[in-house]
Amino acid sequence: MQQREIYNSAQMIELILEIGFLPLLDSGIRGYSAEEMVSDDCRYVMLPDGGWDWPLWKWKGPIITESDCVYGKFFAGKAGFISREWWPDFCNYRRHQHPAPSEGSIEEAILFTLQEQGPLITRELRAACGFNGPKMRSRFDSYVTRLQMACRIITEDFVYPTDKHGREYGWGWSLLTTPEQLHGLTSFECPRTPKESFDRILVHFKSLLPHASEKQILKLIK
Known about the structure:
By secondary structure, the protein is an alpha+beta fold. Helix content is about 45%, strand content about 15%. The protein has ten helices and eight strands. A three-stranded antiparallel beta sheet has the order 1-5-4. A three-stranded antiparallel beta sheet has the order 6-8-7. Helix 1 (about 10-20) packs across helix 3, helix 4 (about 85-95) packs across helix 9 (about 195-210) and helix 9 crosses helix 10 (about 215-220). The radius of gyration is 18 Å and the shape is globular. About 30% of the residues are buried. The mean pLDDT is about 95.
C-alpha cells in the first residue's frame, strides 16, 4: 500500500474506496490507519486556550454520510471504515463467526430496541435497554462492541452538543443503527460462502499489507 498524506475528508473517502478497509486509529500494523495517513496539519493538537483541534476526528461523520462507507468497531474492537464493495464479504464472514443473538439475551434486546426505536446515540440506547445502574455503562458498551464486531450494529453518523451560539463542540456521540436499517437487506447479498469470503479478504489484506505478519492481519479480520 502506497503511503500518502491526506489533507481532507474527500481524499480520505477516495483512499477508503480504493483499499476497502481502514482502521481509524492505531491498528497494530505500522502505517495502516487513517491517523497515520493524514497530513501533520490534520493531527490532534492542543490549543493555547486549552481546547483542541483534530480535523480527522471531525471527518468521521462526513465520510460516512457522503461516501456510503460503513463505520463501526470492526477491527479487534477498534473503529474503522469498510467500503461498500467489501462489506458483503466482511459481513458474510463475521456473521457466520458470530451467530445471531439467542432469544432472550441482552444482545437481542439491544438489537430489538434499535429496530423499534430507530437510530439512537449510545446513552439513549443504554437507557432504553434499562442499563441505568452503577457500573452499567462499561458492561453495556461491551455488548454493543460485540454486536459491532458481529456486523449487527454500525454508526450512522455523529451527533454533537451545541453551545448557546449554536456551535458544535466536544467529541460527539455515535448515532447507532443496524446495517439493515441504514443500507437495506440488499447490502448483504454475497455469492460466496463465509469461508470463501474469508479467503478473499485474507488475500486482499496480504496484498495490501505485504510487510505485515499473518498474525497481525488475522487479528483485524477475525
